[in-house]
């Protein structure tokens, strides 16, 4: 059932920007509450107080909304990691593992979007929309890779890129299985031995990063 609009169509540039921001803010809050895949375009429209047709004046699909949020989330993560390593010139693999695992866990929307983007978000948007998203993500990986290559002795930007890409890929999987809900959560509570299939996010990402970086250093020519 569609909602009744609570305000008129935006016509002035500043009003259009407000509407655009309101749509993204509503989509973000709903995703944090329910998970990206559980949020429909109708849900977002209801939260904003407009009909779905009004949303489509700003975004082609719900997927485009979440790709735009995903691009911002990558940029935000990059800034956060850079801030953590400000002034650091000799970072140990353990410090890198600490920072990457913690800053990812602090960004649940990014972690969710790491999975949802390749699964479905990138499949229901225009070429220009997905290109914009990919360019931002690759820029983020390159920026973080360059940082890792600079602060970890014996690394370089290519090894750094490899680390960030690998950690992001693992995080996409582990975030989902580490947050069971509904029947699965009840099952784990009733039969704790089955909860071995539900790894903890931060320790798993931390351990993988530590082992992966240490291994790369050990095999570097």
Protein model, in words:
The protein is an all-alpha fold. The protein has two domains: 1-58, Arc Repressor Mutant, subunit A (Orthogonal Bundle); 61-219, Tetracycline Repressor, domain 2, CATH 1.10.357.10. Helix content is 71%, strand content 0%. It is built from ten helices and no strands. The chain has helices at 13-34, 41-48, 52-55, 62-84, 93-105, 108-119, 127-151, 157-177, 182-190, 201-219. The longest helix is centred in the middle third of the chain and has 25 residues, at 127-151. The chain is globular and about 60 Å long. Mean pLDDT is 91; it is low at 1-7.
Overview features:
221 residues, mainly alpha, Arc Repressor Mutant, subunit A, globular, disordered N terminus
**SSE run:** HHHHHHHHHH
For CATH, the homologous superfamily of the largest domain is named as: Tetracycline Repressor, domain 2
Biggest sheet character:
none
SS-based class: mainly alpha
- Count of distinct strands: 0
Instruction: State the CATH class of the largest domain.
Output: Mainly Alpha
What would you say the CATH architecture of the largest domain is? Orthogonal Bundle
Task: Give the % helix.
Answer: over 70%
């Amino acid at each position: 059932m569609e909602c009744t609009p609570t305000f008129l169509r935006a016509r002035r540039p500043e009003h259009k920007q407000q509407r655009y921001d309101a749509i993204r803010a509503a989509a973000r809050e709903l995703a944090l509450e329910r998970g990206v895949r559980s949020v429909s375009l109708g849900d977002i429209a209801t939260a904003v107080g407009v009909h779905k047709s009004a949303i489509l004046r700003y975004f082609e699909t719900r997927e485009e909304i979440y790709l735009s949020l995903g691009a911002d989330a990558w940029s935000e993560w990059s800034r956060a990691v850079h801030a953590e390593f400000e002034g650091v010139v000799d970072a140990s693999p353990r410090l890198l593992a600490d920072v990457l695992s913690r800053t990812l866990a602090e960004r649940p929307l990014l972690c969710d979007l790491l999975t949802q983007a390749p699964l479905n978000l990138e499949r229901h948007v225009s070429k220009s929309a997905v290109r914009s998203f990919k360019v931002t993500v690759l820029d983020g990986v390159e920026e973080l890779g360059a940082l890792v290559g600079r602060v970890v002795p014996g690394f370089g930007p290519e090894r750094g890129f490899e680390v960030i890409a690998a950690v992001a890929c693992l995080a996409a999987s582990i975030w989902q299985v580490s947050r069971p809900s509904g029947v699965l959560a009840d099952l784990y509570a009733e039969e704790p031995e089955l909860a071995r299939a539900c790894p903890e996010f931060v320790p798993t990402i931390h351990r993988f990063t530590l082992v992966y970086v240490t291994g790369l250093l050990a095999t570097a020519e």
